[in-house]
Amino acid sequence: MITNQELEFKGDQFPSKIVSFKQDVDNIYFNTDNNVILKITILRDSLIRFRYTTKGYFSNDFSYAIDKTQSHGYNQLEVIEENAFYLIKTSKVFCKITKKNLKISIHDIDGFTILEDEIGFHWEESYEHGGNIVKMSKMSKDGESFYGMGDKPTHLNLKGKRVENWATDQYAFHKDQEPLYKVVPFYIGLHHQKAYGVFFDNTFRTFFDFCQERRNVTSFWAEGGEMNYYFVYGPKMSDVVTTYTHLTGKPELPPMWTLGYHQCKWSYYPESKVKEVTAKFRELKIPCDAIYLDIDYMEGFRCFTWSKEYFPEPKRMVAELAKDGFKTVVIIDPGIKIDKDYWVYQEALKNDYFCKRADGPFMKGKVWPGECNFPDYTNPEVREWWAGLFKELISEIGVKGVWNDMNEPAVMDVPGKTFPYDVRHDYDGNPCSHRKAHNIYGTQMARATYEGVKRFAYPKRPFIITRSAYSGAQRYTSSWTGDNVASWEHLWIANIQMQRMSMSGMGFTGSDIGGFSEQPSGELYARWIQLGVFHPFCRTHSSGDHGEQEPWSFGEEVIDITRKFVELRYQLLPYLYTMFWQYVNEGTPMLKPLVYYDQDDMHTHYRTDEFIFGNQILVCPILEPNALGRRMYLPKGNWYNYWTNELTEGKKELWIKTDFDQIPIFIKEGAIIPKYPVQQYVGELQFDEITLDVYYKLGKEKSVVYEDAEDGYDYNKGRFSLRTFSLNGKEKELIILQHKEGTFETNYSNFKINLKALPFKVKRVEVDNEKISLDSVKLNGDNTLILYKDFTELHIIGA
């Protein structure tokens, strides 16, 4: 056989010199003499898109990741042609495009180089797939660190790592294993105290190398599609994360109950077992808001059915659980059993809704029900049909949430654990193979589920949780980190993953508390609960193959610790709800790694354990057995030990002693932390007062509390309450100013103000410039006082 050696060994190809240039408002085009086009789009002064094609024209511009409802805009755009390069200037950065080879460098307005091409854009013909492998390499600066990338089970700082993005069912994964369930091709670079971000919006299998192969080079590449990436400039990490989250979208507020504690197992059945578990929570007074039903609630694992043997009257059962405060969440997988008598299968078959192989027949794979076909959720007609399937579950039976699993998609007993690569997808009118659609399949399933649950739960808010996700999935769903292991290593991994997911735009995430596979010791379970209550999504889940994993499975001591920390979470619900409101409105991550909190402090760049919960609570889990203390790092500022009220100066490492029923928790000096009374479930109690823990500071600090009806959509009509507290501490005086926005009236009337570490004895109290008797505010020796909630100005004056 004669072959064309020149084609076979062509190798990497590069853009040649620029031969033409054109500007169309915010789009700037550069054409090279070897048919490469670079399109640069200015979205904001600090957000620039770079899109390349090697074929002389661009394919249809379509992305599932970008939130098209979000607005952008810039203040300045100027394009200047010099002898050797073009210069694109905004008010935040300027970008140089070299004429001879299309290489790019990006600088701040002072001329400091933020990011520059090494080889830059290049590509390689992939004759196996009949397309290009698209590549990009950038110079890495001295001391540069890298963060983000979703649920990677590795050190928070990715320097020296190579990661892969291909949504994969990885049962019992381990530290540093690649790839996992989620695909978030977004990283944050930090050097010379300046942060930037890169989002490579390409749904093919992608790779990122953070100076592993070559110590001063960062690269990313994809096995198909376009070189299409967004550059985000900070210089603060917070600017990068919020801009990226704005770009890919933010969720709506979840119902308050979803922030409570949830209990799950594979599987709770029959009905008597479900009732036994829920009754035990109420008996032991461990708060719990949700109970989950795994695949065994179905008839032969057929989605949208109920087992007549295990759950003969689901509507009655769900109503009885709801009466006791439990919301029922059920699992729904993508695999639809091939069964001529199964109505869901018949509907999809009749309407041609299943994914097909390239040679025509429906793609068939084995999952829990046996042989299955799989809906093509990239088809809007299929999503609309899928959404309609939830009517009975949600509006008739009363299920409150849906849990999408196995949606990487996962297929059993085949190499690669997924669909054949030649399976075809509609991709919203942009037909493609599974190589392109694989990474967004789970997100589009979650989107269709969200649309259905939202439709039938109205006027209440929906709740969806997914295992697989691509950037932008946060618009529709929460997530968890998949099939982890009951080990101390996985406790460390869970802590890292939650911080990383928060920085990657997907804040509403948690891990399986205690580990999904294998069996935790009582000590490990207790330590995991102590961490898990500070994660946005809080759920115990286990495979059930290795023993019981309810909180009472480990003895009285662990029951008491579980109750203590779950009660703390329920007390902190207004604080947590406010965190979520800030995430939804501003794109602010709910968990903040120390490097996010203070990127100028080099000691934070490699910290993995400590994190800021919201804005004012510092949490440091115990991650080793037999530990009654640990060394930890306090970042800048002054911090109160939550357990002792001792004040400690930050920016130093120290030893913190704890007991088995404690972990190191610190409160930022000057913080005002809202607390509700302990409830067994959200909405159980009507209370007339809430507590404000006020931590004295010599100086100023602001705190906010957001509240609404805890469900429904009235908050969109202004029916919310946003309280801003401005604290100003002096040597003999503490002043608290309150500003309230919104028309929502909370049920409670009073604040119980708990003054922490007040350095003087209270002599006088003035409210809104009127002197108030100490008896009327019920001041006592613990420095607590009761005050009507709508005060404007509070002065506490010392002797």
UniProtKB/TrEMBL annotation:
Residues in Glycoside hydrolase family 31 TIM barrel domain copies: 251-579
Q: Which SUPFAM superfamilies match?
A: (Trans)glycosidases (SSF51445), Galactose mutarotase-like (SSF74650), Glycosyl hydrolase domain (SSF51011)
Q: Where is the Glycosyl hydrolase family 31 C-terminal domain?
A: 587-673
Q: Which UniProt keywords apply?
A: Glycosidase, Hydrolase
This entry's Enzyme Commission designation comes to 3.2.1.-
Ranges of residues in domain DUF5110:
689-755
User: Where do the Glycoside hydrolase family 31 N-terminal domain residues begin and end?
Assistant: 38-209
**Molecular function as annotated in GO:** hydrolase activity, acting on glycosyl bonds
Pfam families listed in its UniProt record: DUF5110, Gal_mutarotas_2, Glyco_hydro_31_2nd, Glyco_hydro_31_3rd
Q: Which family does it belong to?
A: Belongs to the glycosyl hydrolase 31 family.
Query: Protein name, please?
Result: Glycoside hydrolase family 31 protein
Organism, as annotated: Flavobacterium paronense
